[in-house]
Amino acid sequence: MIIDLSTPQIGFGNGNFSVSKNGHITARGGGNIAGWTISDDSLYSHNDKYQTGMTSTGEPAFYAGASTQSYNPNNTNTYNFSVTHDGYLYSKQGQIGGWNITPTKLFHDSYRKNENDEWVKDQ
Length: 123
Hints:
Strand content: over 45%
Order of helices and strands: EEEEEEEEEEEEEEEE
Mean pLDDT: 80
Strand order of the largest sheet: 5-6-7-8-9-10-11
Distance between the termini: 73 Å
Shape: elongated
Largest sheet: 7 strands, antiparallel
């Protein structure tokens, strides 16, 4: 353990945890903060029903709403929401710019498809 009051800095565990004089914190080896698990490449939390997290090495990069019963790290569609490292966004439902997203369709309350399969605005 190092506690140097002249620099000042604090260090424990051969550099696994340190705080520099500028306030930079280094912590290696993982741990937990307020129910979130920290590893070398991810930050995640889960309860009896859902998982939420992010990772720098696996896919997807960000995920939320995965059922703990249906979780499959090799299938991004097991999450209610996810974004892969290459930018692929998946959401089971939601709304973007007034357009509604459901598991089977994308629609806007003011638009409909006409007989030519074109989107037209209702008057």
